[in-house]
Design goal:
single chain, mainly alpha, 2 domains, coiled coil, transcription coactivator activity, AMY1, nucleus, c-Myc-binding protein
Length: 103
């Protein structure tokens, strides 16, 4: 009988661990989504894998890097545009290449 209580105690600890870490909530949400799916997928396991992979939160560092990348792309486009304008402006004040060679 003592062996039975020890097994129950370990199960209860494990259940609390899963609950505390959010595993039970996540699994419940994915299973509810599968239940509510109007057309059941051929592979329930693939459905679970796909939704569990998508359910994991983004790494905050990745989010910051993506934001920084977007900002850098905007700055790059602005600098390229400014460079074009400056080249056009410079071309107005520089003599053509043939005149430079004649001097």
């Amino acid at each position: 009988m003592a062996h039975y209580k020890a097994a129950d105690s370990k199960r209860e600890q494990f259940r609390r661990y899963l609950e505390k870490s959010g595993v039970l909530d996540t699994l419940t949400k994915v299973l509810v989504a599968l239940y509510e799916e109007p057309e059941k997928p051929n592979s329930a396991l693939d459905f679970l894998k796909h939704h569990l992979g998508a359910a994991t939160p983004e790494n905050p560092e990745i989010e910051l890097l993506l934001l920084e990348l977007a900002e850098m792309k905007e700055k790059y486009e602005a600098i390229v545009e400014e460079n074009k304008k400056l080249k056009t402006k410079l071309a107005q004040y520089e003599p053509p290449q043939e005149e430079k060679r004649a001097e």
